[in-house]
Specification:
Layout: E1 3-8, E2 11-16, H1 19-22, H2 28-43, E3 49-54, H3 65-69, H4 74-82, E4 110-114, E5 117-119, H5 121-128, E6 131-135, E7 139-141, H6 155-163, H7 165-174, E8 177-179, H8 180-186, E9 191-193, H9 198-211, H10 214-227, H11 232-259
Parallel strand pairs: 2-3, 3-4, 4-6, 5-7, 6-9
Antiparallel strand pairs: 1-2, 7-8
Amino acid sequence: MTVRIEKNNAVWTIIHSRFEEARNAMDPESADALVAALKTFDADPQASVAVLWGEGGAFCAGWDLKYASELNDREKFDAEITKGLAFPTGANDAPRGPLGPTRLELSKPVIAAVEGPAVAGGMELALWCDIRVMAEDAYFGVYCRRWGIPLLDGGSVRLPRLVGQGRAMEIILTGRKVPAQEALAIGMCEKLVEPGAARAAAEAMAQEIARFPQAAVRADRRTVHESYGQPLRQAMRTEWHNGVEAHWVEGASGAGRFAGGLGRSGDFSKI
């Protein structure tokens, strides 16, 4: 199997393992398996945070170009891509993206643990995650620019939201390498660690998030996603609707623990 799950209490690490074969480039079977793993995570009431990691020293080298090169027959291309992965109209569920879960709208956070290349569709997969932890020698880049393959997994949508339209346009159109240090500086990732330490650091962050009352975590995460681009009043309404029930479920008991002496002076150790 190219995808497996390792569980540590409420944190699930979802591992993509095709390094020897293709530096973790994504073929259809791996894409399907990754979607299935993440749907299982989202549906499990005992799971709170997922970490997505590519085994062997590469996060993901993008779409498997060996597979892409076989799509040179128009009938095959239409059946597997144009129609097979087409977005439906309205609010109907979309099929997976070429890289797998990039169209999923999960209810729980996912952290990308990025070692080595996260390029082309691999960059898009990392951008789909809520948070990115990168090794200092890891890198992004729209390397598919060289081969005439456009971004089809949300990269041209999510990257401008993180770094701004002008900077995103330059990265997308030139296809150049974006080293980890630059990615941190411009907002493409949130934390840098030593080479080889991305998974452990992402899992430690996931454990910290998993400690908190999860209804509020999920409500706030959902609002960040849903309110982007909304007018202020509409965005505030979105925040209210997402958060008010979580406040009822968890807020009063949490406030009671604080009133009882926990968490004073910003102490997160005992909550």
